[in-house]
TrEMBL record:
Keywords: Carbohydrate metabolism, Hydrolase, Magnesium, Metal-binding. The lineage of its organism: Bacteria, Pseudomonadati, Pseudomonadota, Gammaproteobacteria, Cellvibrionales. SUPFAM superfamilies: HAD-like (SSF56784). One of its GO terms (cellular component) is cytosol. It comes from SAR92 clade bacterium. This is HAD family hydrolase.
Length: 223
């Protein structure tokens, strides 16, 4: 496949951060003397951010009088435990290495706040490997708006049509399509059962991270 830059969503696409979020949630639940939660009960809620996780774990939302204090407490716990259990999804280090070997810049476009993104990438030894990292603080609008992706392509000096963007949520695909990029729906991520990924209008749907390398590189060599 021909492309000049490869961009990833972060949580649920490049990195499996769910174990850290779940570990931190259970520490919070323990503090508040609430029943612990199993990974299978909350894993796909990671894509909804801290508010979605708190709703799933504690059953509270922004209307709760202590919601924002508890949210800050949860995020502090997460920050302290970031990268404790996080890992690259299977096969993706091979993809990153192939990009680097072929002088194809790769980067990250995420809705995760800068504070947590930078801390996570440093812990995962990815800060110096990513050619560009775009967080909500860098733009006026976040995904599904295309602005963050357009900024990434500008900083890489690569036209959007020559970029591939991979994400595990419909907002990622909407942002990529609106930016004029080809898109890959990451079926290996935190995709909810009722998401109907086939209707996201992605250029490609990739069910497993282990086979992404073949889609991007092996097939290109055979053609």
């Amino acid at each position: 496949m021909e492309f000049k830059a490869l961009l990833f969503d972060l949580d649920g696409t490049l990195l499996d951060t769910a174990p850290d979020f779940i570990y931190s949630m259970n520490l919070l639940l323990k503090r508040h003397k609430k029943p612990l939660i199993r990974e299978c009960e909350i894993r796909t809620s990671v894509t909804d951010g801290s508010e979605g996780l708190l709703k799933k774990g504690l059953g509270i939302d922004s209307t709760h009088k202590h919601f924002f204090d508890i949210k800050d407490e949860y995020l502090d716990i997460y920050y302290e435990n970031i990268a404790k259990k996080t890992s690259l999804f299977k096969g993706l280090n091979e993809v990153l290495s192939a990009c680097e070997k072929n002088s194809i810049p790769w980067g990250i476009v995420t809705n995760k706040p800068l504070k947590y993104t930078n801390h996570l990438l440093e812990k995962m030894l990815l800060s110096n490997r990513s050619a560009v990292t775009i967080c909500p603080e860098h733009t006026k609008k976040s995904k599904p708006h295309p602005e963050p992706l357009i900024l990434a392509s500008d900083l890489l000096s690569v036209a959007p049509r020559d970029c591939l963007f991979i994400g595990d949520h419909i907002r990622d695909i909407q942002a990529g399509n609106s930016a004029g990029m080809r898109t890959i729906a990451a079926g290996w991520g935190y995709v909810k059962e009722d998401s109907n990924i086939e209707k996201w209008d992605a250029t490609f749907i990739q069910p497993r991270s282990e086979t992404l390398f073949d889609l991007l590189f092996t097939k290109a060599k055979k053609s």
